[in-house]
Design goal:
It is a single chain. The protein is mainly β. The chain has one domain: Immunoglobulin-like (Sandwich), CATH 2.60.40.790. A four-stranded mixed beta sheet has the order 1-6-5-4, with no helix packed on it. A four-stranded antiparallel beta sheet has the order 2-3-8-7, with no helix packed on it. A hairpin with a 2-residue loop joins strand 7 and strand 8. The longest helix has 9 residues. The termini are far apart.
């Protein structure tokens, strides 16, 4: 069986490839549980200080960015640790039924715990469904 491969035009061949912003981050492990009146999100971000965590809500999406402290040692050598030293970013679509303004967060020993309360109308609707 023969295959015909068409070469790309020269203008497309030399065009620089842009990497998406998510290539600079890695997705942390997380656990999401629905409670009767809230959603509890546990994100595992070892090596991160509380001052370097940014939590942002964009519509129904929640974006958690946690940056590691970058330390350059005197005896530094490249050991292909680029992937493990990347910062964390978690993007979740949780929906519009949560009150993002009332979010509470706590970071203890690399475990970030977020509690997102449900809006009153959404919580009442779930209680009446049986």
């Amino acid at each position: 069986m023969h295959t015909i491969i068409h070469p790309q035009p020269t203008s497309q061949r030399h065009r620089s490839v842009e990497t998406p912003a998510s290539a600079h981050f890695r997705q942390p492990s997380y656990d999401c549980r629905e409670l009767p009146d809230a959603v509890k999100l546990v994100v595992y971000v070892p090596g991160v200080d509380a001052s370097s965590v940014a939590i942002e809500a964009r519509g129904p999406d929640l974006i958690v960015t946690a940056r590691k402290q970058q330390v350059v040692r005197v005896n530094w050598q490249a050991l292909h640790l680029e992937a493990s030293q990347r910062d964390y970013q978690l993007r979740l679509r949780l929906g519009a039924g949560l009150d993002y303004a009332a979010l509470t967060a706590e970071l203890h020993e690399g475990v970030l715990t977020l509690l997102l309360p449900k809006r009153e109308a959404t919580a009442a609707r779930w209680r009446h469904v049986a």
